[in-house]
Amino acid sequence: MCGAAALGTAGTAGAWPTTVTGEMQTFINNARSAGAPGDDDALLTQGYLACRILYTGQGRQAAVDATSDAVVNAARGTLCTQAPS
């Protein structure tokens, strides 16, 4: 019975906590205030995806298409300020 109880909690989002830095929190706040939906984890995932798309040269529109305008703008202002336009 103990194994079943342990298995019931395995894989929850809280199992691998990540320390949120000031920069990450600023991104979350900016994205949320610009209208981006989602919890902190979802916003960070979208922000990092937007940065990856921008840094790999796929362009702003590809990043917007994959995430949202609010996420891309917030990411450009905090997470990936050096990404090509």
Give an overview of the whole structure.
With 85 residues, this protein is mainly alpha-helical. The protein has a domain at 40-85. The protein has 5 helices and no strands. It has helices at residues 2-9, 22-33, 40-55, 60-66, 69-78. Helix 2 (22-33) crosses helix 3. It is globular, with a radius of gyration of 16 Å. Residues 4-12 have low confidence and may be disordered. This is DUF732 domain-containing protein. It comes from Mycolicibacterium brumae.
- The arrangement of helices and strands along the chain is HHHHH
Taken as a percent bin, the fraction of beta residues is: under 5%
Outline the low-pLDDT stretches. Answer: 4-12
Distance between the termini: 55 Å
The total of beta strands comes to: 0
Largest sheet: none
Average pLDDT metric: 87
- What sort of overall outline do the alpha carbons produce when their principal axes are compared? globular
Structural class: mainly alpha
